[in-house]
Hints:
Number of helices: 5
Shape: globular
Oligomer: single chain
Radius of gyration: 17 Å
Largest sheet: 8 strands, mixed
Strand order of the largest sheet: 1-2-3-4-5-6-7-8
Number of domains: 1
Distance between the termini: 29 Å
Order of helices and strands: HEEEEHHHHEEEE
Structural class: alpha+beta
Amino acid sequence: MSFFKTLFKKETVKKEIEGLGLFEFYQDQNDSYWKIEHSVLSLPNNFSFGAINGSQTELNKQALQAFKYYATQPNLLIELLDKNFERLAQKCISDFNLLQVEQHFFIKTLTTTDDENFEFGLHSKTIDVFIEVFIRANRLDSLHLDEGCCE
């Protein structure tokens, strides 16, 4: 590492969040959040990324509350999916339905901005397909499908 990179290297800021574990602060031009890269509470073992909106000095209280709520009861994320989800998903994957989500996908990611705006990722148990679900104002807003993303 060059002298200047060493001199200006930012120190990683970490924070113990009660009931959840050790989170690391991340900030770029668009976002600042606290992240964790392993399962917590009732999230599945293969969960790999969680993020809670906040600044370096504090977490957004609504985002923290929402993260804990869904990490304790991840089945509630699946319950947010409705016929609109099927319609949007079928644009990407023909003959796709909610039963397939329950049987063949697990929750891989959860990012909370506040208590009404968040996203979560579903990954197939059998193939490399990732569906990111965007919730805005507590309603399904959009989906993003990524094939061949995670292996």
